[in-house]
Predict the 3D structure of the following.
Amino acid sequence: MINTVAIMSPGDMGHSVGLELKKHGIDVITCLDGRSDRTKLLATRGGFRIVENFDQMVKEADLLLSIMVPSNAQQFAIQIAKSIASTKGNLIFVDCNAISPKNSKIVSDIITDAGGQYVDGGIIGNSPANGDTPRFYVSGPAGNSLLSLDGKGIAVKLIGDQIGQASGIKMCYAALTKGTNTLQVALLLMAEKMGLLDQLVEEFSNSQSNVLESMEKSIKKLPANAHRWIGEMQQIASTFEDFGLTSDFHKGAEKIYTLLNESQFGDETPETIDLDRTSLETIKLISKKL
């Protein structure tokens, strides 16, 4: 039975998931040592109970959801493994980050060698704060440990007993969704540089109206998240290589997210996005800096 869930870190997705779990009677905890003011604010909004350090978090939690930037996932697992070893805990560690199946297996070894249990995970969908119910795909020998959280603001989908299956489906899915976003940004920037953006948009409105509507909703929001998705594109590119396919698509996507992160809108957060700015205005303003 899962009574206490630790979430690291209570960012956009993490704090919202924590709030939903808390509504369903789960004790939700986190450690804010060294975290940003924004993260601390989101933890407060999520109603998290704050613990002093990782050792205390490992002692108290039945299960830990690691939800963070993929580049931080492995180092965080190493820190938690030290706490598992020192406290002799039997924590269930769920890596929900956008990492490759190969890296998930590395993290699994780190956790299980310390005495913990490991679940391979991947989140698909928006945070509950946006009215969505994110799907938590899980796999591995301990994957069924998350099933008691199903329906508590999240949907848990157990897809197998192999480490790498859940992270694999996340890689494939995000390769399409976040990869497509960067292709759209690149071609719109190119059209603007050619002086053809208005004409291209007119053609899209006639022949690709659904795509145009999607771009208008999403592109203005991308810079606020680009810093997280740079590493995700690296993980996806690595996964393609691991399975004998070209990584070039997502190496290009990585460059577009880097461009967005370094743009005049790269300092925005999901809470501070200027929703009055249209996606086409975003493209035109970024283009002026190129």
